[in-house]
Every structure is written in C-alpha cells, then in structure tokens.
Write a structure and sequence with these properties.
The complex is a heterotrimer of chains A (272), B (158) and C (557).
Chain A: E1 4-8, H1 11-20, E2 24-26, H2 33-38, E3 46-50, E4 58-59, E5 64-68, H3 73-78, H4 86-90, H5 95-98, H6 103-106, H7 115-122, E6 126-131, E7 134-139, H8 140-146, E8 154-161, E9 169-175, E10 183-190, E11 193-194, E12 197-198, E13 202-206, E14 213-214, H9 216-222, H10 229-237, H11 253-268
Parallel strand pairs in A: 1-3, 2-3
Antiparallel strand pairs in A: 4-5, 5-8, 6-7, 6-8, 9-10, 10-13, 11-12, 13-14
Helix pairs in contact in A: 9-10, 10-11
Chain B: E1 3-9, E2 12-18, H1 24-31, E3 50-53, E4 56-59, E5 72-74, H2 87-94, H3 104-117, H4 123-129, H5 141-157
Parallel strand pairs in B: 1-5
Antiparallel strand pairs in B: 1-2, 3-4, 3-5
Helix pairs in contact in B: 2-5
Chain C: H1 28-33, E1 48-54, E2 60-66, H2 68-71, E3 76-80, E4 110-111, E5 117-123, H3 126-135, E6 137-142, H4 149-152, E7 178-182, H5 185-191, E8 194-202, E9 214-219, E10 225-229, H6 234-245, E11 252-255, H7 271-282, E12 286-289, H8 292-297, E13 305-313, E14 319-331, H9 337-347, E15 356-365, H10 379-396, H11 401-408, H12 427-437, H13 444-448, H14 479-490, E16 512-515, H15 517-523, H16 545-552
Parallel strand pairs in C: 1-12, 10-11, 14-15
Antiparallel strand pairs in C: 1-5, 2-4, 2-6, 3-5, 7-15, 8-13, 8-16, 9-10, 9-12, 13-14
The chains are: A alpha+beta (272), B alpha+beta (158), C alpha+beta (557).
Chain lengths: 272, 158, 557
C-alpha cells in the first residue's frame, strides 16, 4: 500500500490516530522513521505528524526543565540554559542529524543509538505520554522497560530537575571511530557533592543492555563517598553489575563488561 | 495523494509534485533535476545527501519534501556565482579534496554550513562540522585542509 | 613530497613532465560543482525497480517459492526466476576461458549463502517491490553449513557448490592449489637453528563505497539496451552481461566510467544481468540499485584469508626456508577469488631472498558471502601475514625487525621462487629512508646495505627442487567417481592435511608463535632432490590470467 501522510493540529489528535490505526507510525525528526521507509520497512503505511506548538516547546529557565518531544538536538545545543546537556546532544550524529533528530525520537532509538536518553535517565527524567484522553506521566526508566511492547504511544515531552551544580553532571560516549561513531558504550552520571561527599548519585549506561539502564550497584557504592580514586574504587569494582551488554559489530559483550569500569572511573575522575 | 511543494532552490522559486512520504532528496533529484545531492545510504549515516534548509544542514534523504515548503534550500549547484566558484570549491580543487566525487557535494554543503556561521573555525570545529559526512576514497585530511584554506580566503575577503 | 634524487641517481631522469609535479584531476571541477554524472544521475522517466527476495538461510534446499500473493501487489510487473535465466550459471572469468560457471543469478533450487537472491521483483516503485518481497513465501530445507576454510576441506564437510564439485578450486585441471616449489624446505628446516610457525587470520572486509552497486537499463527501439552503470570494468561487464544473457555484444551499450567509490567492489557485474533481463522481459527501463544493507551484506567483500607460515632461520638472521599454506575463503561462489588465490601465490614468499620455498594457496568454498576483488586481494592478506611473521621471527632470534628485513631483502640478481631474476629492487633503500624518518636506529651494516650489492651469484641459481604435489582428500559423498578420475590422471596420491594444526587454543591471534622444530623435521619425509628443476605446470586449457590485470588495472578507485 502506498504511504499516506496525516498531519494533525494537536498532539491528542495524533495520539488518537496512532491508537486507532495499526499501520500508523509517528514522525518526529525523521532520522529513525524515514530511515525505515527508505529501507523498505512495509510494516506501516501511515505516517502521522503534528503541528502542535506544544510538541516543540522548551521551558528551560526554572529548576524543573520541560522539553517538548519535538525539540531537536540542535536546539539543545543552542540553549545556554542547557549547557550541561551539550556534550550529550553533541554525541548524536553530525550537525545534519542534530538539526533533525528529536529528543522524543531518541527515546525510541534502538541499540547502539539513544545516547541522549542515557543522559535523561541519569537526570531521572519523567516522560509525558499523550493520548486522546489527555497526558499521563511516567518515569523514563519505566517507559524504557515497556518500550518494546508498543510503538504506537506518543511521547509529548520530558521533564527533569536541573542539577543544582551543573558540573555534577558527567557524560561520556566511547566510540571506535572519532570524532563520531555509534556507542561502544555511553555513561551519564550525576554526582552531587555535599561537604565533599556524593549524595544522591545517579548513573546510567547506554549499550550495556538492550535499552539504556540505571547502574544501581554503582549508585549505591558511590553514596557518601568522596569523588576520589579511593572513594570511587568500590563503585568501579561493581561497574558491570546488572548489565547485559549486546555483542555487535562494534564490540563484544565481554569487551563492554571489561571496559565499563575503566570508562566509569575516568568519567568520575574527570579524565575523559 | 500527491501534493505540490513550493520552496526556494538556490535562490529560485520552484514548485514540484511530491508523493506522500517522498523525501526532499527524491524531489530535488527526480522532479527538479538537481542531482547534486547523492543517495549514499538513505539512512542518515553517510551525509552525501546533505543540503541546507534555511541555512542549517539537513539530510535530504530523511526529510519529507513538504517540510521544505516555503523555505530556502541550498545545494552545491548554487555555490558558484556564475562562473566564479565558491572559495570552498576552489580549495577542494586545489587541495585534491575529492577523488571519486560522490561525497563531495554533501561535504561542501556541510562545510558551507560551518563557514556561513564561522569564518575562523578551528581544525576541531572543521572536523566536527564534517563528522556526519563519510568519504571512502581520499581520507579526510585534504578535505579538512581545503575547508581551512577556504575559511582563510573568506575571512581575508572580509 | 620529496624525491630522494641521491638514490639510484644513474637511473633517474630529470626531464619528466609529470612526476614530482602537482596536477589537477581532470574530473574535479565536475565533482565540486555537482555536475559529475554518476549512473544514478541519468534521469530516466517511467522506471521499473528491482528488489530481490534473499535467502534467510546460509545453506538450504528450496522446496518451494510461493509468489502468488506477491504477484497481486499493485505495481508489480514481473517476477524473475531461475527459469527466466538464459544461461543457468555463470562466472565472470569464464569469458577468458578460465574457471567454472558456478553461480546462478537467481537460486537454482538451493541457496548457498545468506542473502543469495532467489527471485527478483520488478515493480513500478521500490515501495511496491518491497511489499511484494515481504509477501513471497520461501520453503527452505536447511542443510548443514560450513563457514571455516579448514573445516570445508575435510572429506565429510557439506558440499557447498555442486558446479565446482568439491570445496576447493582445482587449478590447471589437476592442482588442488596454486603451488610454488623452490628448493627443498625440509632440508632448509633441518639446517636451521630455529623453526618458527605462525598462523594468521584476516576477516572479510567490505569496500562500503558511498555509491552502492547499481545500474539503469533503458531498452531502445533499435533492440539495443543502454546500460548506465557504476561498474569499474565497463567492457568486462558488457562482455559478461552478453555472455550471461546470450546476447550479441552489439545489443549492449554501456555508459559509465564514473564510479562512486569502487575499490574492487564493482567488477563482479552482479546487478546488470538481472536489470537487462528485466528490461528485455518488460520492455521498460529498469533500475536496480543495492540498498545500503544489501551493499554491506551481499556485495562481495575482500575474502577472509588464513595463512600458516613456517620459517627456518639461522641465529644470525638468515631465512633458509619458508613454507606457506594460504587459504582463501571464496564464500559460496568463485567470483574473482580463483584469481585472487593465484595472486597470493605470485606474491609469496614476500620481497625476500629465501633459497627454499614452498607455497600452497587454496581457493576454498564455504557458505559465506562470495568474496571477490578488493585492492590487492590475495596480496594484502598475504602481506599482513608475512610482515607479521617477520616481526615474530625477528623477536624470536633477538634481532631488530628492520635489520632482519634488510638482511633478507631481495637484491638485484637474486632468483625469485617464481624463477624470475630480481631487477630494480629498492626495498632496502625504502627501509633505510623509513628508519631515518622514524628516527629508528640502524646498524652501520644495515645503513650501508644496498639493493645492488650482494645479490646474484649463487643466489641467482634455481636450487634442486623435489617434486611434491599437494593432494586433498576428495569429499566422501562423491569420492568414488572422482577418485577414479584422479587416479587415472595423477597416479597414486596421498591425502594430506597440509597445515600444521594449530594447537595453541583460544581465538586465532595474529602473531602467535611457536617454535616446534622437532615435529616439523619429522612431519614429511622429503623425496630425494631431482637434479633438474621441474618445468612449471602447463595449463591444460587456455586461460586469461595474464589478461586479468589489464581488466582490473584500469580505474582503481
């Protein structure tokens, strides 16, 4: 069946279309969906998109940052308020990809992609899902757990707390090719210090499991410790705990497990 | 249902029919006859289809044609001013920055996007600017050198 | 760039017009203005598009292909099948009377690698073709598959390619490998202070040109077909399409010469035959272009190569004997691997004077993607192994790796294992310059060495060479008939497994070394040396090996 294109005025209309048409997929920036079209994916025949201004809205001034799912990586990079997220946005493709790719789309990007989602996971972001009944919210971690089960949910936006100290947020993507390549692995970490001790650490990995994941064992081992080589040693020792990294053309599962601790140590000590 | 799309291509108003789901790359090549952007991967990974839309580099293989409606599209065909080549084109010729030539149009447009905003890029900025463009023949060094050389000429020109 | 005029000064001319001077490419203005026309830049209205249904199995018999639903997809104009092929199997070298027609353009009832085309959908749009592909049902009966060259050579290995009849290519009618015999390697090993073995493995490499393989075919009113193509060998491809479709060559007009990256990956002439056939059967212009995924998965890569090298050396760094067993993984079909194997044998034992050399180069069939040409195929893999092994041996005898190379490098007047005298050698000088640029200290002796001194004399002689032909055991299932033929042709044979089996364990790792002189000394009692060196084997039928380079030597990109 030839492709059909539906453009809605509101997110809820788009959500309703997606819910009612099995053959419908939502188009954000196009870097995933149009790729599927070009590669002969005939599992869908309706492309849904929206001109709802809420889809691309950015609220970046306050302590709670709210981003529409249609916000593009280039817009993140153009925002001074979001400077702490620039390394994560810059990790996505080259400039042309970044002027198209959206943060909402990144939530659906399959391994080895989805590096921005790793950053959002370390920020404990919440995901807004649009439906014809309104918007409901859930934790990003929960969203990722359910991601494979339906491609026809519509993410309308994400929100997260701005880190009180932007330097407490760290991001590193390890690649085989430079300056750009798909991830061997990606780490995002929020390590706030109070009185020289880590309080409320959050560490997220990309390419260490089928979807981006939180490294709970590492977080526990960092709690209350100073951000020094000795302080983080216990966390580095358990870096691979709970991971289930894939083997692909970039790296083996064995290698990813082997190197995650090294990269985590470098990231936490500012050696990347 | 096919729709008409109107936009500006290299300064000229153009109109073309686009099928639903048809990309800007397909409209440029098959309907407007501008074959300078190339289909290298159709996945967004090679950059050979890079064109500028309102000054920003985009992958025309992944952009629906009607997303360009009412906007300014630039391709390599519009780089030269009459017989006068753009400094990027001159530098690419002099520095042997093309071998098979298939990546060249995308490479030039990615470089133009950089130089339009930044006349004095560092080497690292040049590398970043073409980081989404793959060249399988020459390697990247002559391309980087050519872009830096073009930047010098443009800033000397003021 | 700097030309070292002080070296070989008497051979240098200073009145050269181009060498050493910058020059502008003739096609670069087209490249930078976007005016260069690649095959896909020829805009043809009313195109039909081809997409192939490809095997999901590595090795399987096809019980049935059900295309009924696919035929009903709107826009599908034709489905090409094996039955439509004018010539049922083909190899691109048989137009030179070399090799065996061993590959059907569409599956002949069996698939031999994953991604092999089974039927080709010809449709009004790629979308329609893709939909039809998704609706074709193929009923496979999976067969045991073999992915390793040495496994494939065992008598009970599954037979990959029935056209070939065994899992290796037989050269010149009667040789199980392309072989070199020069001197007596076993005697060399006995004289050596150390015998050092290495096993080297190279993975397949995909060319990944930015422009994927493709062509556009336009039928003309005069019965001719205009073919816009990315091929690297325009006339070679034209001849092959004519042969494969049983057309006179004057029915084909090939337009090309502008290749969006080739590197050897655009000589196999894989897309043109089906596209011309589709144009013949539909009367419509047809476009057949590999998707990126197809380019990566099914276009032929540089093949995997496995090389065993055994060197006998003296403590002071002289290589006395070198034995090489080289396996080319051709994948499921010959393509150009039969020729790549010849090239590897022609390149061994590397640019060194070694008085005793044994080379066996096998072209082996496995259920992997057919491999083919890529930038010095056969040579590059061999060099990787040879130069890795040079480092291993240098380390084993405690010698500087560059000094070790200079000591053994060819000098003018040396007899090569291929029975040609060395002339114009310059390896020593290259190493000296490289060492200087890298600030790598060389001894006075190495610095004074010259390609012009020390060669010839005794080193110009062809040493007494025992006859020894390597024979592989025939596949068990088919051995009876072949055995009879072989016995008649060659007399009693012995089945040997030529490589020293690797027992080091673990993953194959380049540069693993093992000093095992004892076992090698008793491995193979050598026949008494003949007084005269044997004549080089004569081909049993005419062949075009010498012409290959003129085909593939043009337009390397």
């Amino acid at each position: 069946m030839p492709l059909q294109l539906r453009t809605t005025d509101t997110l809820s209309e788009a959500a309703a279309l997606l819910a009612s048409e099995r053959a419908a997929r939502f188009l954000g920036g196009g870097t995933l969906l149009m790729r599927a079209v070009n590669e002969g994916d005939v599992s869908f025949s309706v492309i849904v998109r929206t001109r709802d201004p809420a889809f691309a809205r950015m609220r970046t001034a306050g302590t709670r940052i709210e981003l529409g799912a249609g916000v593009r990586m280039a817009q993140i990079l153009a925002s001074r308020d979001l400077a702490f997220l620039h390394p994560a946005a810059r990790a996505i493709g080259g400039p042309a990809v970044r002027s198209m790719a959206t943060i909402g789309g990144n939530l659906f990007a399959e391994h080895p992609y989805g590096d921005f989602t790793v950053a959002l996971l370390a920020l404990d972001a919440r995901v807004q899902l649009a439906s014809s009944l309104g918007v409901r919210e859930l934790a990003l971690e929960e969203f990722l757990r359910a991601r494979g089960r339906s491609e026809r949910v519509l993410v309308s936006g994400v929100s997260f707390e701005r880190p009180a100290d932007p330097s407490a947020f760290r991001f590193h993507k390890m690649t085989r090719t430079h300056p750009k390549g798909a991830a061997v692995l990606t780490i995002a970490a929020l390590v706030p210090l109070i009185g020289g001790r880590i309080v409320g650490a959050r560490v997220a990995y990309g390419a260490m499991a089928p979807t981006p994941m939180r490294a709970r064992a590492v977080e526990r081992a960092l709690e209350g410790r100073p951000l020094t080589a000795e302080g983080i040693a216990a966390a580095v020792a358990v870096a691979a705990e709970g991971t289930d990294p894939p083997t692909d053309a970039l790296a083996s599962s064995w290698y990813r497990r082997r190197v995650i601790g090294v990269m985590l140590r470098r990231l936490l000590l500012g050696e990347t | 249902m096919a729709t008409a799309v109107e936009f500006t291509l290299n300064g000229n108003a153009v109109a073309a029919i686009a099928e639903p789901g048809e990309t800007l790359l397909s409209v440029l090549r098959n309907r407007l006859g501008d074959t300078s952007p190339k289909a290298g991967c159709l996945q967004g990974t090679c950059g050979a289809c890079t064109v500028l839309v309102d000054g920003e580099p985009v992958l025309s293989c992944l952009l629906l044609a009607d997303a360009a409606a009412g906007r300014h599209v630039e391709t390599v065909r519009g780089l030269a001013q009459g017989p006068q080549l753009h400094p990027l084109q001159e530098a690419f010729m002099e520095r042997f920055a093309a071998q098979c030539g298939f990546c060249t149009p995308g490479m030039l447009m990615a470089a133009k996007a950089l130089l339009d905003h930044n006349r004095n890029p560092t080497r690292a900025e040049v590398i970043e600017a073409i980081s989404g463009n793959v060249c399988r023949c020459t390697g990247y060094l002559p391309i980087i050198e050519a872009i830096l050389e073009a930047a010098r000429r443009l800033s000397a020109r003021g | 760039m700097r030309i070292r005029k002080e070296m070989f000064a008497d051979e240098r001319r200073d009145d050269l017009v181009l060498i050493g001077k910058p020059i502008r490419r003739q096609d670069i203005e087209g490249h930078v203005t976007g005016r260069t026309q690649f095959f896909d830049d020829h805009l043809v209205p009313g195109l039909l598009h081809i997409r192939c249904v490809r095997s999901s199995e590595h090795h399987a018999r096809i019980r049935a292909v059900d295309t009924r639903e696919a035929e009903r997809v709107a826009g599908v104009r034709r489905i090409l099948r094996y039955a439509d092929l004018p010539k049922k199997a083909h190899n691109i070298l048989t137009i030179f009377n070399f090799g065996i027609d061993d590959e059907p353009a569409l599956a002949d009832g069996k698939v031999r690698y994953r991604g092999e085309p089974i039927v080709a959908i010809v449709a009004e749009s790629l979308r329609a073709a893709d939909e039809a592909v998704a609706k074709v049902r193929v009923d496979y009966e999976p067969l045991p598959a073999v992915f390793d060259v040495e496994e494939a050579l065992k008598p009970d290995a599954p037979l990959v390619n029935e056209y070939i009849g065994r899992n290796w290519f037989r050269y010149w009618g009667d040789y199980d490998c392309q072989q070199i015999r020069f001197g007596d390697v076993e005697a060399g090993f006995r004289q050596a202070d150390l015998v050092i073995e290495g096993r080297y493995q190279m993975s397949p490499i995909e060319h990944a040109p930015l422009e994927t393989n493709g062509c556009i075919v336009v039928p003309g009113e005069d019965g001719r077909f205009t073919v816009y193509t990315c091929t690297q060998g325009l006339h070679f491809s034209l001849d092959n399409v004519a042969a494969q479709l049983k057309l006179d060559t004057n029915r084909l007009h090939f337009i090309g010469g502008t290749v969006g990256g080739g590197f050897g990956g655009k000589v196999d002439t894989v897309v043109e035959p089906l596209a011309v056939l589709a144009a013949m059967l539909t009367g419509r212009p047809v476009r057949y272009v590999f998707s990126r995924a197809e380019e990566m998965q099914v276009s032929s890569p540089r093949g995997a190569e496995r090389v065993y090298i055994t060197d006998g050396v003296t403590r002071d760094g002289r290589i006395l004997a070198r034995k090489i067993v080289h396996y080319h993984d051709a994948g499921a079909y010959s393509r150009l691997s039969t020729y790549g194997t010849i090239k590897s044998a022609a390149h061994h034992p590397g640019p060194y004077y070694i008085p005793n050399v044994w080379v066996d180069s096998f072209c082996v069939f496995t259920n992997r993607t057919p491999s083919s040409a890529m930038r010095g195929f056969g040579v590059t893999g061999g060099d990787f192994a040879l130069e890795s092994h040079m480092d291993v041996v240098a380390r084993a005898i405690g010698m500087d790796p560059l000094e070790f190379r200079i000591k053994n490098a060819y000098r003018d007047g040396d007899m090569k294992a291929h029975r040609k005298l060395t002339e114009g050698a310059a390896l020593i000088e290259c190493i000296q310059v490289a060492a200087e640029l890298a600030h790598w200290p060389l001894s006075e002796e190495a610095r004074r060495a010259s390609s012009r001194i020390g060669g010839g004399g005794e080193r110009a002689q062809i040493p007494p060479t025992p006859k020894a032909r390597t024979r592989l055991a025939e596949p068990r299932a088919r051995s009876a008939a072949l055995e009879a033929r072989r016995t008649a042709a060659a007399g009693p044979s012995r089945a040997i497994t030529p490589p020293p089996a690797w027992t080091g364990g673990g993953e194959p790792t380049a540069g693993r070394e093992r000093v095992e002189a004892e076992r090698l000394r008793t491995a193979e009692p050598s026949a008494p040396p003949e007084q005269r060196p044997p004549e080089p084997p004569r081909p049993t039928h005419s062949h075009g090996a010498l012409r290959f380079s003129s085909v593939f030597g043009s337009r390397r990109r």
